[in-house]
Amino acid sequence: MLYLRTGGNGSGKTLLTLKDVRALQLETGRPVCINIRPATDEKKPNQPYCNIKAEKLEEFGWKKIRFEDWEAQDDNTIFLIDECHYDLPVRSTKVPPPHIQRLTEHRSRGFDFFLLTQHPKNIDSFVRNLVQAPGWHEHIKRIGGALPVAQFHQWDAVKLQCEAFGSAKDANSKTRPYPTEVYTWYDSATIHTGRKRIPWRVWFILIAPMLILWLFWSGFSQVGKGSTGKQSSAAAETVSARSNGGAAANHVKTPAEYVASYQPRIPALLHTAPVYDGLTVPKRVPVPAACVEMPSKGCKCYTQDATPYPVDLAMCRQIVAHGVFLAFQAEGELAGRNQVQPQPVKAQEPVQAAPSASPGLVLIGGGIPAAPNPPAAVPAPATQARVQPGSKWSFTTGGQ
């Protein structure tokens, strides 16, 4: 597959890709090839674009090649093509060169290409159109200018405006610390001029709680002037408890630890971030409270909150046919509170219908004629419960 990584200079494209390619090689045992500069290069002729050191190149068993020779390599080879805009430049002609055109058949031989450049518009549009799922396009940004944390935005196809504000709204985003051990594998920039800066969002997160507390305290002190002494004492104890307990439990985190604590374990579900672990302790258990099978819609199960309950077809049909026994309270501590207690039923006395005048009849100087007694109502038989006591609802089809 083709994997395109873009990002500005110093964003960590080469650093992170060297780590990923090496990990993939160790996991699968596949050969690795890296592209080299042309022999006519004035500074580093025939040297790898990724600037990996010779001893690491020999240790890893990686092979140096020219990109146009990729078809001559062994099947299942992994290619790391750094600065790929040199080997895949934007063309003015309509027909791509043969070694680029034949990239359409790379999957038949099990090849994987990791292409690195600053921006997707820097490379051949023919190659950009080949980057599709299960391949991806990842754009990397360094958080805080020079902080050791990278932010990834990933798309299934090439995102031409990947650097634009708001482009990540349709991306799969994540953060990742830079692997410091990889710095010894290659020669990066001779001097790093980036300056560390904390993003304004982090400053807002740090300052907002203190501002809210100050506003709350200011308003509270104005309302409760009559009991200032008691309120001040309680507030002092609260602040002391927070400072004493918080100092032990919340040590000063590094920027990487702080950012990682807000990273959801499950993408798009913010409450799965580690920082919320103390607030998300489960109190209930989802169970198949109701299952129904209909010829038109198949067999489906639902939880006690009427949300879909994922279950395979065979299990769904088994529950429909035989039910399911739960040896626990699915609602936890709430089960005893919410359980409906049976109420005694009082014997009903016959109700005498009130006399009423015939419709449209008005009597002058006389009483209202008594209406004939209506037939006594026959009490309906008590309906039997269709679900177990405590269930909120059930599904039925086709009558009783």
TrEMBL record:
The chain crosses the membrane at residues 202-220. InterPro entries: P-loop_NTPase, Zot_N. Keywords: Membrane, Transmembrane, Transmembrane helix. It comes from the Bacteria. Residues 391-400 have a biased composition (Polar residues). Residues 1-191 form the Zona occludens toxin N-terminal domain. Pfam families: Zot (PF05707). Residues 373-400 are annotated as: Disordered. This is Zona occludens toxin. It comes from Variovorax guangxiensis.
